[in-house]
Amino acid sequence: MAQLERELGITPGLLRQWQRSAALRGEYASQDNEPLTPKAAEDRIRRLEIEANGISLMERYRTVLYNYGTLVFEELRVAKRRFESEGSIYFNDSIDRWVAQISLPNGQRKSKSSTTQKEVRDWLIDQRNMLREGLFVTDGQIRLGDFLDRYIDDVARHSLRPRTYDRNNDIVNNHIKPDLGNIKLSALRPDQVQSFYTKKLNEGLSKRTVQYIHAVLHKALNQALKWGLVARNVTDLVEKSRPKRKTFTTWSATEVNQFLDFVSDHRWYPIYAVAVYTGMRQGEILGLHRGNINCEQGVDNVRHQISAIRGQGLVITEPKSERARRPITLLPTALDILKSHLKLINEGPGLIFTTSTGRPISPRNVLRHFKLVIEQTGLPEIRFHDLRHTHATLLLAAGTHPEVVQERLRHSQISLTLETYSHVIPSLQTETADQFEAILG
């Protein structure tokens, strides 16, 4: 027996491993404990290979140990060379546990231990499947906070608009990192994220703010997924906050005319008129350049906007999307107002709306004056951005097709236009129904 062990290179530890495995699996030569024939041993080895689900696709040799005519155990011997992605399973005497290991494409190794061989085998099979699908986790030690710092610096800073970057950075540092930052990125669970959202709501944050937190975390974890730092995006498995649709107030045509008449002698009258007649955003209006306006064709090509950036002041940036850069047809009244304004300013390719010193106009100053005019006229209180909503609402109320309104507002999808102005659509449907009734007589 000892000579056989020496010839096969069997150590006492390896023998105990096989014996333990045999006891756990209930493997014996036969019901009457008769010695196993070479043919039967070969069949058992093949069966063990199948049970291992291909884990032992490697060099091996047969080991059949007999102790006074009774089979102790036969098993496949793990060779030194194997396919790296196949992994291995062995029993560790020092910790009295089964251990599974697998090599990652980056050279790192992952392992799992358990008191049962089945648990580590199932884990190893899952890891191999993830490797085949390219979902391997390359760094299981990095913490969420450290990853978010890297994401903000390496990705968000260079892919997001400045104001969006500032807000994302605030969300990460003021909300996500303080609560979840110390959790290992690969160990983050959906229930932890769900509890985090609930905590923020209980602290008094609005559903819209929590929804924004979810959006920031979801986008960051999608990047972690691309980098192979996580196997899934856990935010896909949580119930995100769903705030009520934001409501807004608009002016009637009479109220719009009252407002424009009141500011007609103010130097910012063209700014307000362009907002009402085009539905452009405030930053886009303040960023208009002379070269953006084609007076012959009556078209405004949106190419710039003014943004207030933290630490930089007022900055000329590009519109938020390709859709936002589409030209806008200027209505005759708006075109005449712009032509008159262009005659009053210096020739040149720069901004057409500036301060007396030629600097960009601060959006805050316009908002301050806008609120002052509302107080003086007694008009319903609205935001400057609601002039854009007023433009769309008046068009829809006049029977303009929603797709035309979508084009003027440069919405990415018609569904956004319909959802935003759904309060106007029912009245249009009523008018359409009456028109159809009249057609049929």
Defining key terms:
DNA polymerase, domain 1; 3-stranded antiparallel β-sheet; disordered N terminus
Structural features, described:
- With 441 residues, the protein is mainly α.
- The protein contains 17 helices and ten strands.
- Helix 5 runs antiparallel to helix 6 (162-180) and helix 15 crosses helix 16.
- The protein starts with a helix and ends with a helix.
- Residues 1-5, 22-36 and 49-84 have low confidence and may be disordered.
Blueprint of the fold:
Blueprint: H1 2-8, H2 12-25, H3 38-51, E1 62-67, E2 70-76, E3 88-92, E4 97-103, E5 109-114, H4 117-132, H5 144-159, H6 162-180, H7 190-202, H8 207-226, H9 253-262, H10 269-278, H11 282-286, E6 293-294, E7 299-300, E8 305-309, E9 313-317, E10 328-329, H12 332-344, H13 363-377, H14 386-397, H15 402-409, H16 414-420, H17 425-440
Antiparallel strand pairs: 1-2, 3-4, 4-5, 6-7, 7-10, 8-9
Helix pairs in contact: 5-6, 6-7, 6-8, 10-12, 10-14, 14-15, 15-16
Number of helices: 17
The counted number of beta strands is: 10
Tell me which CATH architecture of the largest domain applies here: Orthogonal Bundle
Largest sheet entry: 3 strands, antiparallel
